[in-house]
Amino acid sequence: MRRRSLRSRLILLVTVAVALAIAACAALSWFIVENQLIRQLDQSILEPEGKGDQKFLLEHCTSDGSPDYHDMATLLRADGSTCSLGSPIVPTEEDRGACEGSGGEPIFRNGVTRDGEAVRVVTLNFGPGVAVLEARPLYHIRITLRNTAILLAAVAAVGVLGAAIAGLLIARTALRPVGRLTKAVEHIAKTEDLDTRIPVTGDDEIARLSSSFNAMTTALAGSRERQKQLVADAGHELRTPLTTLRTNIDLLLRSEQTGRSLDPQAKERLLVNVKAQFAELTTLVADLLQLARGDTDHEPHVELPFHEVVTAAVERARLRGAEVVTELSPWYVVGGAASLERAVLNLIDNAAKFSPGGEVEVRLDGGRLTVRDHGPGLPEEELPHVFERFWRSPSARGLPGSGLGLAIVAQAVAEAGGEVRLANAPGGGAIATIRLPGTLMRRSETDKSV
């Protein structure tokens, strides 16, 4: 069974709700009218009678009634005998009880005459052992109630029709932004055009949904643009070592194919160059794989001693020839040990590259890690770009590197919930600062002490 559209369901809901409300109001109105008419009829029956009326009733009533009278009255005696003017009223046990009392409250009920006509009956005590039953026909009231019911039904039908039309208009107006959103989603699905935007008006739920949709498409467009840029930059960066590799290998092959052997030293230089290019390619591919990971595609985050991670990175940097002095205090963070160690190592390698022969100072205190070099520093206009992928300072074009090291640092620190910045240090050189949320003691040790 095909499910109804949101618009048809909204129209149906409004129509049913209004129809139920109109039906309830119509039924209530009908009962109020009926009650009012019956009350008016009872009051007309209870109009005070003069002694002449009572005498006339006693003198002219008969056991079979007299059909010449429109109004109906029946005297009921304690022995069950009756005497009537007009069509005789059929008494009930309740009416017989009125014969025994004197005065008392009148008895109101619906009844019938001996001819089967429906009437409204009021029973009063007439005297000792006698009760009088007065009645009026219900025919006119029933006609009025029937006409009222027809009128209310017509009004209800018009109301339901109006509710359906109003529901249609309300649905069209209320769902127009949803329709625009649907068309935008279908357009994006068909054309992959992430520049599509939905106009946002007001501050209701639809407006918030439109704003969220625009934010989502903006984020997706930015992500796709970054992916395109990454692929383009990667292709550009890979082209240089691959071209060099191909050139060197072509020289080696040509020397072998032509029988003109290269000078041993030249051949060694070519092979060393090929090895260096392979190493550069390996590093570049590893960096690209590191950056290509999604925000959720990272190693499991656990609580770890960040000072030990920094120590491990410093030892690796020293093996590469860097002179590093450290001043570390304990700090425990939640993150990935491998990615954080890689980030710290990249900062140390970067500092060592720009201060050849100089010391790299690494300090960790209260969750603030600083890595300082004593090189020339950076121009202020270049500082905002240092963490961009493949960005390299013009002064560093001749130095080894792919321009991805600091981008990897920024990604690793962000995954651990921290922040990183690079600035020129007082007295010369540059200083990189990482701030990571954490504690001085392991949480397990803190819980035990508590």
Automatic annotation (TrEMBL):
GO terms for molecular function: ATP binding; phosphoprotein phosphatase activity; phosphorelay sensor kinase activity. It comes from Nonomuraea phyllanthi. Its EC number is 2.7.13.3. It is a multi-pass membrane protein. CDD domains: HAMP, HATPase, HisKA. Its main location: membrane. The chain crosses the membrane at residues 149-171. Keywords: ATP-binding, Cell membrane, Hydrolase, Kinase, Magnesium, Manganese, Membrane, Nucleotide-binding, Phosphoprotein, Protein phosphatase, Stress response, Transferase, Transmembrane, Transmembrane helix, Two-component regulatory system, Virulence. It comes from the Bacteria. It catalyses: ATP + protein L-histidine = ADP + protein N-phospho-L-histidine. It is found in: Cell membrane. The keyword Kinase applies. Signal peptide: none annotated. GO terms for cellular component: plasma membrane. This is Signal transduction histidine-protein kinase/phosphatase MprB. InterPro entries: 2C_sensor_his_kinase (IPR050980), HAMP_dom (IPR003660), HATPase_C_sf (IPR036890), HATPase_dom (IPR003594), His_kinase_dom (IPR005467), HisK_dim/P_dom (IPR003661), HisK_dim/P_sf (IPR036097), Sig_transdc_His_kin-like_C (IPR004358). Its cofactor is Mn(2+); Mg(2+).
